[in-house]
Design goal:
152 residues, 69% helix, elongated, membrane, MARVEL-CKLF_proteins
Length: 152
């Protein structure tokens, strides 16, 4: 019996990436990653501030996730087993990077609570929330990518 939708054992292409888990998570990852990027870029940066790492992670993950989305949408993944492994590896690295950036950003935000401008503090809080949301999305994507990779 043939089915039009992709299962966890298949890598979708084209519009199929909008109908399968974990591939449907690309868009929220891009949205929350972009919000982290924008919010951190708007905040005050002091010399000992690790927000440079947060910016690197958010820009790197945004660009790589977009490239990954385009490759999957255009059907550029021919050897499905190695692409499934690469998808798992990329999302594992992205989840680890975002977790480390989220912790660093939360620490900076807590340290700036007393002496910073209220507007910058609100931007930092928003960036922390969106950073942790992006982390959760990447972790979920990693779990489902691992399940799909192991099903090959």
């Amino acid at each position: 019996m043939a089915s039009n939708t992709a299962t966890l054992g298949n890598l979708p292409s084209g519009c199929g990436i909008c109908t399968t888990i974990p591939d449907i998570l690309y868009v929220p990852e891009l949205i929350f990653g972009g919000l982290v990027w924008i919010l951190v870029a708007c905040t005050l940066v002091v010399p000992q501030n690790p927000q440079g790492w947060v910016m690197f992670v958010s820009v790197f993950c945004f660009v790589m996730t977009f490239i990954w989305l385009v490759v999957f949408a255009c059907g550029g993944h021919q050897n499905k087993s190695s692409w499934a492994a690469a998808d798992f590896i990329y999302h594992s690295v992205a989840a680890f990077f975002y977790l480390s950036a989220s912790v660093a950003l939360a620490k900076v935000t807590l340290d700036m609570k007393d002496g910073s401008v209220f507007k910058n503090y609100q931007l930092d809080i928003s960036a922390v929330v969106f950073s942790y949301m992006a982390t959760v999305l990447y972790v979920i994507h990693t779990i489902f990518s691992a399940i799909r990779w192991k099903s090959f």
